[in-house]
Amino acid sequence: MSTTIAVRNLSVRYRGAERRALDEVDFEAAEGEILGVLGPTGAGKSTLLKCLAGVIPHFEHDARYKGSLSVLGRELAESDSLASVAADVGLVLQDPEVQLVNTTVREELAWGMENRGVPVPVILDRVDRAAELFGLTDLLDRFTHALSGGEKQRTVVAATFCLDPRVMLLDEPTSELDPAGTDDVMRAIRTVAAQGVTVVIVEHKVEELAEYADRLVQLDHGAVTAVGTPRELLTSPRAVHRPPVLALARRLRELQAWPSTELPLTVDEAVAQWTGGVGRVVPHAPAAPSAVPRPDVLTLRDVRHVYPGGVAALTGVELAIGRGEFVAIIGKNGSGKTTLAKHLNGMLHPTNRDGTVTVAPAGAPPFRTGERRLHQIARHVGYVFQNPDRQIFHDSCAEELEFGLRNLGVPEAEIGPRVGETLRAVGLAGRERTNPAHMSRGERQRLAIAATLVMEPEVAVIDEPTTGQDPAEARLILDVLAAYCRAGHTVVIISHDMALVAGYADRIIAMRHGSVLADGPPREVFAMVDVLDTTNIRPPQLTAFGSRIGAPVLLDHDEAVAALSGLAANERC
Question: Where are the transmembrane segments (predicted)?
């Protein structure tokens, strides 16, 4: 295969930055190859894609660029304009909303082709092909503003595909997709690559890269730290993050409890290696902790919500959420999760007369959300949007947190220490004076979470708290939320990261078509495989692996190591 992308000694430094965003980067990508780019937040991944797309140096003039970057045989720095590069190179940004410019999905898919003068019959054919490939057929006439975050991501990727690029650059294209939706998009990308398109994809979901990428490039602090096939890179000591089944197998091998000389990248490989070595294990389940009764802090009765246009987002939800619970709401894109969450703090109200949402603050009479103004409810129920840019409006991180505290009447002497402590907790220590506009999306997400937690609402509702975070930062955020919960507050998150849900939540609410399909502890809900299949939710890798080898429902790494190392030893006796 011919070389499509050749990068040699590429370095980029933004004006005023202390270090290079990219530091002498070298790699190649071939025609039809899927090249995965991974690394921690701030490693330079998005900057690399901007260079490959010609945004740097043709558009972002505050970035100094040196080295050689050749795409399709031409040096990008010598191209006439960004438009000349875009004729062959498609870029999907991390935030899909900044690329959506049309009223409906159908119009969005056709718009770029119309601008290029593509004949109408060709436009119609490509729209139909893209809709089928990326699962948008039923959404073609839906308003783009009414789409879920994951549906918006599918639309933007499909619109880029419609332009028939020879190179596709994708910046976290599945970050807001449910697990099955992620697999659907990755399979579509594989189909695109099979047609000769070179795909460079930045992704934190390392288990997907392990399965679908041909090669991986690992970045850290702007430099390439490793290049190789998924097996070469992820099984080596240089790997920063690994698929959960691979991390488990490595640990069990250290304990002489992994039965194969090979290490697995996928659940299928792990099952084959385990059963081929020690046979099927005897199931046994750890004792479930007895439930502790909790007073209800939120109660929903017959909550229905129909949006203008007739879309029924909620269809009679009945829920009670207890004080001090850590609740995760899961479900496929468009199942009603965000609509439900927005009812919890009065941002939305039931559209049926009998529907009610009741808040029961500590030490105060309960009230219905329809009886209070939004700012009054927000004192008790805080909310963090899926897109942090919808609620960040100050010029520094400190001001963002100070604003809410002053509105609550917190004494000035307390504000500084509370702001500093909260920023430290979310990994933003020393960033008090940083302008949020100069931060990555993942950092802005943590800032939005901090701005809510600093006000100490009794209930914190957070829509996709780990979007844009690398695995270490995602765990940091969930650790912060778990500590907040242990302090007596209630935490409600929406998440598509089933491994984090399994490891942190003590209750899962699974949504489907606007109603509650399952509600219970993670161990119970993740055992409902047939039920979860109807929600586009797949259990975490470790849970799926344990289920297929007859082990108990495994929720995290330590639990899996303890269960399987003992089982393996028993099988050998």
Answer: none
